[in-house]
C-alpha cells in the first residue's frame, strides 16, 4: 500500500525497457521488434487474489485476479488477439504468475497462435529453512488465505493438494499444457534470504554476511547452500522429461536475469554450454533448438554475475 509493490500511485510513470524488453536489436536480437508490454505488479499474490470485501481499516483490495483479467481484456482489444506469437514472461513473483496463468493466457488467444511462457526466478522451492521449520510453506499459506487465491490456482493442482501447496511451481508446472521455459539460479539470492535462511530462522543474523555476498559464506553455509541446490534441482528434474520445456539453471548467486541487460545479453553475460540466456530463450521460442541445461555447482562458472547486496537492500521476509 505504501510502496510500488502495493499501489500504482507509488509507481514511476515512465519505466525504461531493457534486456528482454529492449527495442534495440544489438541488445535483444530475437524480440526487439515485438510488441512488448510490462504489466505492473502491485497485488501481492501473483494476480491470483479475489476477495469481495474491502478491509475497512486499510482500504486494501485483494483482487489481483481481476486486475489480471482487466489487463488481458484491454490488451486483446488493442490487438493482442491478432498475435502470431505470444510469450508470457515475468521474474520473481512475475515468474510465478507466468506459470500460474500460463494455460489460461493460452486460452485467451486463437488456436493458431504460438504461445509460450517464460518463468524467470519464479520457481520457489518448498523446503525447510536452516532451523528445520517450514517457513515458506506457512508464508505461502498466509498469502493464499489472505487473498482468497484458491479458486484462481490451477485446478489440476488444487484437485490433488491444498491451495498453499499449489503456490509452489514444483507441484504445478508438470500439468501445464503450454510450453514453458524455466530460467533460475540454483542459488537464487531471494530464496537463500527468504526460504533457506529467513530472519525467523536466523534471529542472530549469522547468515547476513553470507546473504549479502556469497564470497563471505563460511564453508558450513556453502554446504547448506549446496544441499539446497540439490533439492532445487531434484524439484526441477522431478517435473519429468518434456519435448517442449526449456531450462536454463545456472549456478549464479542472483535473482531475475531477463530484465537486466548484463545478464540477458551482453559481452560478458552468463553462459551455459557457450549459450547466453537470450540465445537459449530465443532458440526455444522460435523452435530453433530446445535448450535444457543445468550448470555445475558453485563456484565453477566464471561467467556468473553474483549479486552483492548492502544491508539497506530489501530485508528478508
Automatic annotation (TrEMBL):
Name of the protein in its database record: Pectin acetylesterase
UniProt keyword annotation of Secreted present: yes
Keyword 4Fe-4S: no
Phylogenetic lineage: Eukaryota, Viridiplantae, Streptophyta, Embryophyta, Tracheophyta
Compartments where found: Secreted, Cell wall
Location, primary (coarse class): secreted
Family: Belongs to the pectinacetylesterase family.
Enzyme Commission numbers on file: 3.1.1.-
Keywords, ordered alphabetically: Cell wall, Cell wall biogenesis/degradation, Hydrolase, Secreted
Amino acid at each position: 500500500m505504501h510502496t510500488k509493490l502495493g499501489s500504482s500511485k507509488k509507481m514511476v510513470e515512465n519505466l525504461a525497457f531493457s534486456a528482454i524488453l529492449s527495442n534495440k536489436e544489438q541488445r535483444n536480437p530475437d524480440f526487439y521488434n515485438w510488441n512488448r508490454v510490462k504489466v505492473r505488479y502491485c497485488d501481492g499474490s501473483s494476480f491470483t487474489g479475489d476477495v469481495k470485501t474491502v478491509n475497512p481499516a486499510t482500504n486494501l483490495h485483494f483482487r489481483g485476479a481481476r486486475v489480471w483479467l482487466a489487463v488481458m481484456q484491454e490488451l486483446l482489444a488493442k490487438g493482442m488477439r491478432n498475435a502470431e506469437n505470444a510469450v508470457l514472461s515475468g521474474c520473481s513473483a512475475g515468474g510465478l504468475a507466468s506459470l500460474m496463468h500460463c494455460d489460461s493466457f493460452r486460452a485467451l488467444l486463437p488456436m493458431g497462435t504460438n504461445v509460450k511462457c517464460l518463468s524467470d526466478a519464479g520457481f520457489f522451492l518448498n523446503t525447510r529453512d536452516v532451523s528445520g521449520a517450514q517457513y515458506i510453506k506457512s508464508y505461502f499459506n498466509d498469502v493464499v488465505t489472505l487473498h482468497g487465491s484458491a479458486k484462481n490456482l490451477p485446478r489440476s493442482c488444487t484437485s490433488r493438494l491444498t491451495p498453499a501447496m499449489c503456490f509452489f511451481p514444483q507441484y504445478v508446472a508438470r500439468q501445464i499444457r503450454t510450453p514453458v521455459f524455466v530460467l533460475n539460479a540454483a542459488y537464487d539470492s531471494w530464496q537463500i534470504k527468504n526460504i533457506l535462511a529467513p530472519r525467523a530462522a536466523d534471529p542472530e543474523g549469522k547468515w547476513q554476511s553470507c546473504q549479502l555476498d556469497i564470497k563471505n559464506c563460511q564453508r558450513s553455509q556453502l554446504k547448506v547452500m549446496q544441499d539446497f541446490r540439490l533439492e532445487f534441482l531434484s524439484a526441477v528434474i522431478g517435473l519429468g522429461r518434456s519435448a517442449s520445456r526449456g531450462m536454463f539453471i545456472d549456478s549464479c548467486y542472483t535473482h531475475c536475469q531477463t530484465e537486466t541487460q548484463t545478464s540477458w545479453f551482453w559481452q560478458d553475460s552468463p553462459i551455459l554450454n557457450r549459450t547466453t540466456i537470450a540465445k537459449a530463450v530465443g532458440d526455444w521460442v522460435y523452435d530453433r533448438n530446445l535448450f535444457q541445461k543445468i550448470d555445475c555447482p558453485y563456484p565453477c562458472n566464471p561467467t556468473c554475475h553474483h549479486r552483492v547486496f548492502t544491508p539497506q537492500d530489501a530485508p528478508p521476509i
